[in-house]
Prior knowledge:
Layout: H1 12-46, H2 49-97, H3 101-107, H4 109-151, H5 157-200, H6 202-207, H7 211-237, H8 239-263, H9 269-311, E1 332-339, E2 349-356, E3 361-366, H10 372-379, E4 387-392, E5 395-396, H11 402-407, E6 409-412, E7 421-422, H12 423-428, H13 436-445, H14 449-453, E8 462-463, H15 472-484, E9 490-494, H16 502-515, E10 520-524, H17 528-531, E11 536-541, E12 544-549, H18 551-557, H19 559-568, H20 571-574
Parallel strand pairs: 3-10, 3-11, 6-9, 9-10
Antiparallel strand pairs: 1-2, 1-4, 4-5, 7-8, 11-12
Helix pairs in contact: 1-2, 1-4, 1-9, 2-4, 4-5, 4-9, 5-7, 5-8, 5-9, 8-9, 13-15, 18-19
Amino acid sequence: MIRLFRFLKPYTGSVIAVLALMFFQSLSQLYLPTLMADIVDIGIVNGDTNYMIRVGGLMLLVAAAGSICAILASLLSAKTATGFGKTLRNRVFSRVGSFSLHEFDRIGTASLITRTTNDITQIQQVVLMLLRMMAMAPMMCVGGVIMAVSMDATLSLVIVAVIPLLAAAILVVARKGMPLFKTIQGKLDRLNLVLREGLTGIRVIRAFNRINYEKKRFSDASLDLTDTTIKVHRIMAVLMPGMMLVLNFTTIAIIWFGGIRIDNGNMQVGSLMAFIQYVMQIMFSLIMVSMVFVMIPRASASAVRINEVFDIAPGIQDPEHAKNADFGKGLVEFNDVTFSYPGAERPAVSNISFSARPGEVTAIIGGTGSGKSTLVNLILRFYDVDSGSILIDGVDIREMTQESLRTKIGFVPQTSILFTGTIADNIRYGREDATDEEIERAARIAQAAEFISGMKEGYETVIAQGGTNVSGGQKQRLSIARALVRRPEIYVFDDSFSALDFKTDAKLREALKRETADAAVILVAQRVSTVMDADRIIVMDEGRVAGIGKHKELMSTCGIYREIVSSQLSEEELA
């Protein structure tokens, strides 16, 4: 957890101010019992009312000053802790944003969400307690011991006997609690995973009547987390009552032996009262330490998980000397490309070579699992190739920055993703500075203008989370408009017309032909009707190129392509 404290550097001034305020608050609390002892031993014993009023007034001033310091320290420590949490959250989010898809698959989305929220909250709470309690406790403990010894060194032997017992109890409880807190965070990941799957897959769950099964899954994960949490809190629960018990017995011992010393004339009543107050302060400072130790094991487990995120080196990084010049019009070349997903038994694609030229449509077709979408992921450099190279205008994409590469590409994913916001915001996601006219033009080309104009708010209609208030076909058309408004050099459509009817599909392809006349278009599709008119069709089969050519060429030279065509088109359509 100490490694994460480097993010407190911007708040160094606040931390120093909190420590200074804690110091003055501790001084005020340590001074008050001495003043009380003077009132009893001098004022009351001698019947000096003026002295009692004078010292009593001083006590009020000291108490007020201590209270002001405490309030200011609480305010500053809260601001510092929340600022630290904000900084840490931003750094984790930025780090995760640099991960390739492989790193996402390795950690898991549910775990990343837990680490960014719950884990950082745990650390933030401990930082707040460290600034308030952990800073104050040593001052109170050391100061209390000094003041108690100054009151009566002999009676202070009671404290010497008690403190080691309390310290040992804190260490034992912390050691037992640490592994369990780490387990809790892992089980919280599992609970979040089950919950996320249950919420995102609710349609499938209901369609297959698996609600009771999902309820049991969630209940089992929740019960598992509950049992571990109860177990760890049982251990921690022993600490506070045990310390209070020791505190009370210590007070009894002090009163017992203090009474004997007063009876022997070695101590005054006021001094005993002050001594008891100092012992209380010492004990309560140890209780404060124990409260921090209750939270430190869980925060330490959370810190380990956060540091894991920082320690993961992104598999895909920008080169030191990137080639970010204007490369031309978007010539894409695959040169003997082979790629395997991590842990896969065989390559997803092997020895792929082809070119997608500007002003042409290059279509990719093949059966499920043939490697079509993998090629798209490689073009966008979501993964790096195992061997071979992918060039854009003669430059290897690994020699470009990821930003410059993706600026050249307008991508429409297989699963249409929309974000919370208006329709205009979602289209403008493709290019932030797009004007309203450009947005409307992109929507017209994508065949989305008609259904948008039919909505009450038009382009200002708010898209619900996940795009649940629009149909699958409308999502696809908005995704296409988002790519079009970008005006890139390369368009990549990953099976982006599957939810469209044939009429809309034909109109859209006709409009796209005019819009993308000067750009390279890479079109992944399942429908033969979508790829028939392409300048170049690449037929994929089990990760390899089974054929390249135009429709008529492939009908005579590629058996796999003929099978795909015959399964979708009638003899009349083929004729």
